[in-house]
Amino acid sequence: MDAYLQWLLAGLSFFVLAGWLGYRISRHADAKRKSRRAIAEAAARAEAQRVATEEAARQQAKREAAALEAARAEAQKHARAEAARAQAVRLAAEEAAREAAARLAAQERACAQASRLAAAQASRIEQARVAAQEAARAEAARVAAAHAARALAARLAAEQAARAETARLAAQQEAARAEAARAAADEAARLEAERQATTASAAPVAPKTPDQTLIMVADDSKIVRVKTGRLLAQHQYRVAYAADGLDAAQQMQTSIPDIVITDVEMPGMNGFELARHVRQNPLTAHIPVIMITAANDRHRGDADRAGVSVLLGKPYAEEELIAHIRLATNRESQARAGS
Q1: Which residues, in sequence order, are bridge partners of residue 227?
Q2: DSSP letters of 150-198?
Q3: Which among 106, 214, 265, 316 would be 20 to 30 A from 193, CA to CA?
Q4: CA 157/CA 160 separation, integer angstroms
Q5: Contacts of 48-52 spanning 24+ positions with Cβ under 8 A
Q6: Rounded Cα gap, residues 110 and 11, in angstroms
């Protein structure tokens, strides 16, 4: 209905504009005809006046030629005056013709301006129609996008709920596995304690050599892991690598290292959590933990509470790290001998 009303208004505007243009053109044609008629009448009057004046002059000259020779000069003067008046009339007629031509040119310019205005109005009407169609298409697209967004939101909510349920079930399974692993670790610790109690002797235990010592390096930086591993390999130590604390804890379930070197900030399980995990497991509680951090003073209290054996600040001297490793190895040997 709105589109029909717009077209109706556009049509009415077009017809009103066409009528007005027709009226202006008719007025312009009438003005041109009147101007031409006025020019022709003025020229005819001038010509008639000229002819009459010349005829009167000739008659007057004939009448006075015979009798009055002296009047000839007066007649000539009168003729010159009449000629001057005729010249003035001619100039006036030409001026009137120029003014009429100027008015005609002005009327033609007005008609051209009216034509341009009409074309501009028609263009604006067409632009308004196109804009209305574009707005209608945009509204339809917006409504379709809103429907699609609501459908996507509903689908995502359903998927999120499904993932949450899956995560809850996985957490329950992981808790069950952790409980089973803890029970197995407790049993293994009990058995190991019984075995050590039955096989203990008074003979001293020699410290492990570097090639018998396994050192685990836990750091989320591959560059740091490789650099530390090369240093340890230069001193014939065996090296195991862990990308973070959680990776290190998982590896300890199958292979227990002699020393753990760990960073502080790591994803999944940081260095403090890894140290507490080592101390809480009876099978790994004796392992020395060397922590390397750039803020050793700020982390010292947390490191002591987590059970960290040695806290080294960055950067550290390589000889200092090797010395702490050797000291930790000797202490572990003495602890085994005392047990």
Answers
A1: none
A2: HHHHHHHHHHHHHHHHHHHHHHHHHHHHHHHHHHHHHHHHHHHHHHHHH
A3: 214
A4: 5
A5: 49/86, 49/89, 50/86, 50/89
A6: 24
Q: Which residue has better confidence, 112 or 16?
A: 16
Look at the pTM and tell me if it is higher than 0.85. no
> Does 175 or 228 have the greater pLDDT score?
228
Alpha helices in the chain (DSSP H): 2-65, 71-199, 222-234, 245-252, 271-280, 296-306, 318-338
Q: Which two tokens stand for residue 217?
A: 């390096």
Query: Which amino acid type is present at position 282?
Result: P
Spatial distance between the Cα atoms of 300 and 295, rounded to a whole number of angstroms: 9
pLDDT digits (tens, 9 = 90+) for 254-312: 999 999 999 999 998 999 999 999 999 999 999 999 999 887 678 889 999 999 999 99
Cα gap 335→205, rounded to integer Å: 9
